[in-house]
Every structure is written in C-alpha cells, then in structure tokens.
Amino acid sequence: MALALALSLSCTSALADRIKDLTTLAAMRSNQLIGYGLVVGLQGTGDGADVSFTAQSMKTLLNRLGVSMEGPLSDFETATSSGKLDIKNVAAVMVTAELPGFAKPGQKIDINVSAIGKASNLRGGTLLLSSLRGVDGEIYALAQGALTATGIDAAAAGSKVAVGVPTAARIPSGATVERIVDNPFDKADRIVLNVRESDFTTTNAIVNAINGRFGNDVARALDGVSITLQAPQDLTQRVAFMSMIENMDVMPGEPTARVVVNAKTGTVVISRNVRVTAAAVTHGTISVSIAATNEVSQPGPFSQGQTTAVQNAEVKVTEPNKPMFLFQPGVDLRQIVDAVNQVGASPSSLIAILEALKSSGSLRAELIVI
Question: Which of 54, 124, 132, 127 has its CA nearest to residue 86?
Fold first, then answer.
C-alpha cells in the first residue's frame, strides 16, 4: 500500500498541465447581472396582498399589458384582499446571472431566482419577462421561463419538514443575451494571461515554454500572476495563436503546503507538501458519565412515616491512556497520517492536533479553517 502511494505521488508530480488549465484570458472575464421580476403560478405560497411592492409591481405589469388598473394602489390592494385578484399566487423575486466573456446576443445563460417577500415556496412557478442589468445600468439579458426548485417545505398538524431552500430556484438557459460586453481581445497589441494560482515558478515555466516555441520576447511576465503575449494583429491568426498557446503542456510549480479543515463536517485535507518539524504529540479526552437511579423509601411498620422518593446519582470520570507519538524532523504526509491513525484519533481530535501543531510552530503549512 505504501509503495502504491509513493508511486501515485511520483506519477502525479511528473504530469504536466495545459496552459488552458493553469491560466485565464484577461479579456474573458465574466460580468454579474441582476434584475427584479415576478413569479406567477404558485399554489398559494406567494407573497399575498400584505406585500405592497408585489401588488404595485403586478398593477404596473397589468397596465402595460392593457389591463386597466388606473386607480390608486389602495384600490388595487383592496381588490386583492377581497378575492378579486389572488396575489397569493405571485411572488416578487430577484434574478441574478453571470454573463460569460465573449457572450454574443442570442446565446443562453443560466439564471438564479430568489424570493424577497413573504413567499414560502417557488416550486411550480414561472418567471415573467425580466430585464437583467449590469453595473453600468444597461440591459444585457432578458430572462423568462419555468423555475426548477429542488427545495421542499411541508407542514401539517404543527409539524414542519424542510429539505433544501424552497424560496430559491434556477432556470437553466433561462436568459437570452441581448448586448455584447466590449473587450480588448481584438484591439490590444498584447494579450494578458492570468495564472489561476499566483505562483512565480508556474509563471516562469509558462513564459519559458512559450518563448522556447515561438521565439524570445513573445511572452513576458509582469508579476507572479500576469503574463503578456505579443499576438498577431490579424484576428484569425490571433485565434489560432491562442489555440496553440492554451494546448501547450507546462510543468507547474509545487503548490503551497496547506491543511484545510472543515470544522462543521470534520473533513481534513492535507496537501502532500506538508512537513512537520520535531514534535511529540499526545491527545486524550476526559469523559464524565452521570447515572441517576430513582428509588422509593418506605417507612417502617406503625412508624406513621411517609413514603419518600430518593434519587441516587453516580458520577464516573474516565481518561483513556493515549500513547504519545513522536514526529521526526521533515516527516511527510504519509507519516503524519500513519502516526495519527495509530492513536485512533477521530476527525475532531485530528483537527485539535493540527491546530496545536500550528500554534507550536511545528506545522510547516498554512492552516485554513472553513
């Protein structure tokens, strides 16, 4: 098993990655979109007449569609509360989306829909036509369609069961792009690549690989993240050039030694570059158990006493005899895992050990708690 682990680690380190997987094109940055809309067709789980902005939005929409609602908003709210219009089937929502780089008009993007009023469930609803705007206030997409809600919320006889979040939903390909976001890909003299993980070794390897194939000064490193490329001026040749660049294989630098701990689930992920200096570790837990026994004390015959309830409590404190294990200087990941497994440490105990090692200065890694 140890030999297989060593072989797998050595094979992993010997594999090169494509530049496409290590970098992103600066001109392909995505943009966030946001909008406001109405969801209809709910089974009485909408906002209801109590939410004034939902009633106002519904009145404005009906006026635009040619349904006369020219009276004051109070008259519209009275009509909804009297049963003439059922706003319980309508919910006001916020619509968000991410517009990918190079997105063209007519393409479809996914959208997220979230209730902002008193709606308790969006399952089965349909989003009416909503405009999605960018940070500049311009409309970049139009959204509409049937919602896909995975959350379930059921209540009866004073009991309630909720699975997921029923007030949030998605619409795959629910928005159509209407406007192009300008980018410098076809205009700039040099194209910028950004390394996904800031690393000078990886950046230098990418620059050397590109210059070794296309000639010196084609690629320049600005810092540990950004690389500029001297690309052809012709757009067709520029696209072909970037296709060759992104499919080149490069040996990336070793990532930073990290230990990632999820305190909620007890999950611990240790990268293979983690090292530990000399340290002796022991971990034990003290358990306290209390057992209560209820008894009845009966009075003696002819004593004219009363029956009395007596509670006897037994308190027991135990502390397991945990062995101490010793870390030699520079031990690797496999030795750390083996040492922890020998003492039978649980995930919570492992988290405590790692935090103690970091506090003592023995853990040569970045400890990240999420």
Answer: 54
